[in-house]
TrEMBL record:
Signal peptide interval: none
Record's protein name: 6-phosphofructokinase
InterPro entries from the UniProt entry: Phosphofructokinase_CS, Phosphofructokinase_dom, PKF_sf
Presence of the UniProt keyword Kinase in the record: yes
Its job: Catalyzes the phosphorylation of D-fructose 6-phosphate to fructose 1,6-bisphosphate by ATP, the first committing step of glycolysis.
Sorted UniProt keywords: Allosteric enzyme, Kinase, Magnesium, Metal-binding, Transferase
Keyword RNA-binding: no
PANTHER family: ATP-DEPENDENT 6-PHOSPHOFRUCTOKINASE, PHOSPHOFRUCTOKINASE
EC number, as in UniProt: 2.7.1.11
């Protein structure tokens, strides 16, 4: 049973109002900021440019405020370290 079907059935049993939400949207942390929107546009634009150049298999990201691309297979081979300071900050802000 989908969330929408459950909400409809619930309404049949009384004066209940149910609203279905997508968990991923809730977890994301709210509305995107202007920075989020611009960054998404920059990343998307670079990804499209790469595809138009027939360059696939790349991950697009940001490093030192510059849009960069890296081979996906190379990235997955590397061992990545957690930035403990950022982890602590995220823990503090999520309280």
């Amino acid at each position: 049973m989908s969330g929408n079907e459950f909400a409809n059935q619930l309404a049949e049993y009384g004066d209940y109002h149910a609203r279905v939400t997508v968990l991923g949207h809730v977890q994301r942390g709210g509305s995107p900021t202007a920075f989020d929107r611009v960054l998404a546009s920059r990343l998307g634009s670079r990804a499209v440019d790469l595809l138009l150049q027939n360059r696939g298999g790349l991950a697009v990201g940001i490093r030192e405020n510059k849009i960069v691309e890296n081979d996906i297979t190379e990235i997955l081979k590397e061992k990545h370290q957690l930035n403990n300071e950022m982890f602590k900050l995220a823990s503090i802000l999520s309280i």
